[in-house]
Design a protein that fits this description.
The complex is a heterodimer of chains A (about 600) and B (about 350). Chain A contains 22 helices and 12 strands. Chain A has about 600 residues and is an alpha/beta fold. In chain A, a hairpin with a 2-residue loop joins strand 6 and strand 7. The relative contact order of chain B is 0.20. Chain B has about 350 residues and is mainly alpha-helical. The longest helix of chain B is centred in the N-terminal third of the chain and has 32 residues, at about 5-35. The chains are: A alpha/beta (about 600), B mainly alpha (about 350). Chains A and B meet through helix 5, helix 7, helix 9 and helix 11 of A and helix 7, helix 12 and helix 14 of B.
Chain lengths: ~600, ~350
């Protein structure tokens, strides 16, 4: 079948399924169940973004549902305000709470983060349950229903429409958000934060934005929940609820937007079905549920969505408009005659270990310099010092005459230093071109709101045309739309080069770019690097392949045990006895 | 606050703290060796305490059935997984550990319990019933996920926790039970009453900690566990059987949980789900210790015990809020001292 027709049919079916419960064909009982699924989907959707994309596992999302629910509950009962006013209020309160909790949470590293969310999740649950003005142990009752004009949304069917409208809008907003400049940055947070920073992403801020976005979805669910149940008890926002939400995200597929809806559906329907089938033995439902959960994880770690999406038509490939490519920014006229990059006695110690020992050298404008040395000589650490990943213990790093040794990676990227990594750091789930476009992150400016509302399309077209052109230069145009994780190691290295080029750098730092490349690919890479040099780009390359380096570099710097032991022309280095001894351990 | 109340709270805090310390050690142990965040640790505590109470009431506890069921399940599923690679030695060993042992325990319990065999036997039976749950659960739920991420393991842990707590409800019902004290002696020093039970709790905990130290420092298997904790791949390369080490680690954790359960059974009303909160607080202690250091975990546990005891005196409704909120600045501090490392999966 034509994929376009297939997609149209799939969308039509989905729309039909959504509208069907509004007709009397579906029994009231199922409509109520669908409302619960919709409400849970919203929270689980936030978790998918937070965990699957942002890499932050939260055991506290139910707390934000609680903030939303109690805010509107309090305003509409104690203060007698309209429930509709409760929506902005719920979102504002949830947003503020998320900013405060998020400011702490995103600073937690590794396993401390989920544990931290568990901790404040429990604290907030006890605060909800013990605060008299929120109804204390007995809970809050008498919350008014939502009204449209004089019509109160009391029937399940009318509420269904409202809840699923919210779900559809949230899903679309999330899809738009993830398919944007900021969205790509979010998706790099989980395992590629260092790479994202090297291309100008403010990761701490991006994490906070993801955190608040997820919390707002939960807050929205809370507002809907409060006016649906019309009574609130803290138990709905406790550890058990938190675990349920996480389950939904994991069961559905934690990296997938639709996984949230699917997971919420599976979990809620299963719980209900098991209860029905077992009848009086209802307490066994959770037992089966627990066993099922472990089983799903052992069978499909990516959750259920990948099993479903296998049957769905593929999404349309993005159209690339080469004419939209951005200009390479004009290079500032050189004021100083000295070299572009100067290392002046750069030093880095880790405890007693001197990894980089007062190393000085320079890279001139449009010059290609190679950095070689045995394993552990300090080459990659030196790269880290130049790109702000690590801070030099002493010494200076000058770029275009300005000291950069104290700058953050993002600031260094803005000045025009781009790098590749020794251990490839790509986002495997994103397509090749999306990975490359991340390199141009600092060239764009569209934010979260313009991404959600799709006001960023013109800028996106420019970024992708730019990225496509860079991919073409490294010879990977054909792989443009494949997930980066499916490429060979050599191809991944070339994608990293393309991503670095996307920044339109003045200085390119390449960490073992030829490792894993085939002979022909190496030649192509060498040709590309010569071209770049011709365009005035300076290159500093770490490489073990001596032939590759000798044919390419104008000058070679040799490191051993953190010290510079030689510097000179390739032919001199080749016969330098000190270098030979460092590599071969004395004259054989 | 007068000194009597102050010291009573301190004693209370220290006694609770040592239990948290035991749990914290178990949690740290399991986490560093297998990367599993063991939520069911608290369930072992509840199960042990309730099993002991049932013995004392002359009932056969449901945990006997659980042992039988898990043993059979582990045997069948392991056999299906191993299939063609089943050897005679494997078969005999698994029959012994998975089928014969639970059957023997069943016979022992049904024979001994009506005879009211006394505290020592009851405690021994309890420990022998609860400890094997750990390795069975490891083989059923976690061993197939050995290579999975910490998050996946955590979710599996949630699944196991849910299943076990349901069983707790089925076996023991919603009522709470309290066991007879291990000792009825009371020490009175300057108005501060310290019960013999408290002394036993602290003493047993200290002895257990000492034994664990001996295990890690002086035995080959203990050293193998430490090796796996430091570097899994490296340990595998030098021939340490990761799965077996995982099984033993889980056994240690469930043993520690069982001992804690026996110790608290006479002092608190234990419900089927009491263990969860106790386990979580043990967790807080483990986190204060950075999930990696035993002495720090013990210090953290004592701190949490004292904090809880004073918070409970100040406002019992908010004691958990205080305990869990304290965790956040500590986590922050730890994160600042150990800056983000890229998660490699």
């Amino acid at each position: 079948m034509n994929p376009r027709v297939a997609r149209a049919i799939a969308w039509a079916l989905a729309a039909l399924l959504l509208v069907l419960p509004l007709s009397p064909l579906i029994p009231e009982f199922w409509v109520t169940l669908l409302i619960l699924i919709g409400l849970a989907s919203l929270t689980a959707l936030g978790l998918v973004v937070l965990t699957g994309m942002g890499g932050m596992t939260s055991f506290g999302q139910a707390a934000f549902v609680g903030f939303g629910a109690y805010t509107t509950g309090l305003l509409s009962t104690t203060f007698g305000l309209s429930p509709w006013l409760g929506l902005p209020a719920a979102l504002i309160v949830t947003g503020i709470a998320a900013c405060c909790l998020g400011a702490i949470t995103v600073r937690l590293s590794g396993h401390y983060l989920p544990l931290g969310t568990l901790a404040w999740g429990i604290s907030i649950f006890y605060i909800f349950g013990n605060s008299a003005f929120l109804g204390g142990q007995t809970g809050m009752t008498g919350i008014p229903p939502l009204k449209i004009g004089s019509l109160a949304l009391l029937t399940a069917r009318s509420y269904y429409a409202l809840v699923w409208l919210a779900v559809v809008v949230s899903v679309l907003a999330t899809i738009n958000l993830l398919d944007s400049r900021v969205g790509r940055a979010f998706r790099a947070l989980r395992r590629n934060a260092i790479a994202a920073e090297a291309f100008g992403v403010q990761t701490a801020r991006a994490k906070l934005v993801v955190f608040v976005y997820a919390a707002l979805l939960a807050g929205l669910a809370g507002w809907l929940y409060a006016h649906f149940q019309r009574t609130l008890s803290a138990s709905a926002f406790g550890t058990e609820a938190n675990i349920d939400y996480l389950l939904m995200a994991i069961v559905g597929g934690v990296g997938q937007v639709f996984g949230a809806v699917l997971g919420a559906g599976i979990v809620i329907i299963l719980k209900d079905l098991i209860q029905d089938v077992l009848g009086r033995l209802g307490m066994f439902q959770d037992l089966l549920f627990g066993i099922l959960l472990v089983g799903i994880l052992q069978y499909s770690r990516e959750g259920v969505w990948p099993l479903v999406s296998f049957w769905l038509p593929t999404t349309a490939a993005r159209k690339i408009d080469p004419a939209a490519d951005m200009e390479v920014p004009a290079r500032p006229a050189r004021v100083r005659a000295d070299a572009l990059l100067v290392l002046d006695k750069a030093r880095k110690t880790f405890g007693g270990l001197v990894a980089v020992d007062d190393v000085s050298f320079a890279v001139g404008e449009a010059e290609t310099v190679a950095l070689i040395g045995p394993n552990g000589a300090g080459k990659s650490t030196l790269f880290d010092l130049m790109t702000g990943v690590r801070r030099a213990t002493a010494g200076r790093v000058l770029f275009d005459g300005d000291p950069i040794e104290r700058l953050a990676p993002q600031a260094i990227a803005r000045r025009g230093i781009a790098r590749t990594f020794q251990h490839v750091r790509l986002v495997p789930e994103l397509s090749v071109i999306e990975n490359v476009a991340l390199g141009a992150h600092s060239r764009g400016s569209a934010g979260v709101m313009s991404a959600i509302l799709r006001l960023d399309r013109a800028e996106e077209r420019r970024l992708f045309a730019h990225a496509a052109r860079r991919l073409e230069r490294v010879g990977l145009s054909k792989e443009m739309f494949r997930p980066a994780g499916h490429l060979s190691l050599g191809q991944m290295r070339l994608v990293e080069v393309a991503r670095a080029l996307c920044l339109d750098p003045r200085l390119l730092l390449l960490d073992e770019p030829a490792a894993g490349l085939r002979a022909a690919e190496k030649q192509a890479l060498a040709r590309l690097l010569r071209e770049l040099k011709g365009e005035g780009i300076s290159i500093l390359v770490v490489e073990h392949d001596v032939d590759f380096v000798m044919g390419l570099a104008e000058r070679i710097v040799v490191l051993d045990f953190g010290k510079k032991i030689a510097e000179g022309l390739p032919r001199d280095i080749r016969v330098n006895p000190v270098v030979i001894e460092a590599y071969l351990g004395g004259v054989a | 606050m007068d000194p009597t109340i102050f010291w009573t709270l301190v004693v209370d805090g220290v006694v609770n703290g040592t239990i948290y310390a035991l749990l914290a050690i178990g949690l740290v142990l399991v986490f560093v060796v297998t990367r599993v965040i063991l939520l069911p640790q608290g369930v072992y505590v509840s199960f042990a305490a309730l099993t002991l109470s049932q013995f004392q009431r002359g009932n056969v506890p449901g945990t006997v059935w659980l042992l039988l069921a898990l043993g059979c399940a582990a045997f069948v599923i392991d056999a299906l997984r191993t299939r063609s690679r089943i050897t005679r030695a494997w078969f005999l060993r698994r029959v012994a550990t998975d089928l014969v042992f639970p059957a023997v325990m069943y016979a022992l319990v049904t024979w001994l319990v009506p005879l009211q065999p006394g505290m020592a036997v009851e405690v021994a039976l309890t420990l022998m019933l609860i400890t094997p749950l750990g390795p069975y659960l490891y083989r059923l739920a976690f061993q197939p996920l050995e290579q999975a991420s910490v998050l996946t393991l955590l979710i599996a842990s949630v699944g196991v926790y849910i299943a076990l707590s349901v069983l707790g409800l089925v076996f023991f019902g919603p009522e709470g039970f309290m066991a007879n004290p291990l000792s009825g002696v009371q020490f009175d020093t300057a108005g501060i009453v310290v019960s013999g039970q408290s002394v036993i709790m602290v003493a047993v905990s200290l002895v257990l900690m000492f034994l664990l130290w001996l295990l890690f420092d002086r035995t080959l298997i203990g050293k193998a566990m430490r090796a796996v904790a430091v570097n899994r791949t490296g340990a595998r390369l030098v021939g340490i059987p990761i799965s077996q080490v995982g099984e033993i680690t889980f056994a240690l954790a469930s043993f520690i949980g069982a001992v804690s359960g026996v110790l608290i059974a006479p002092v608190t009303m234990v419900y089927y789900d009491t263990g969860f909160l106790i386990g979580l607080i043990g967790f807080v202690a483990a986190i204060i210790g950075g999930m990696g250091s035993y002495p720090l975990a013990v210090a953290g546990a004592l701190f949490v015990g004292l904090l809880q005891s004073f918070a409970a005196f100040w406002n019992s409704n908010y004691q958990q809020v205080v305990v869990f909120t304290t965790l956040i600045p500590i986590l922050l501090l730890r994160s600042l001292r150990a800056p983000a490392v890229e998660e490699e999966e």
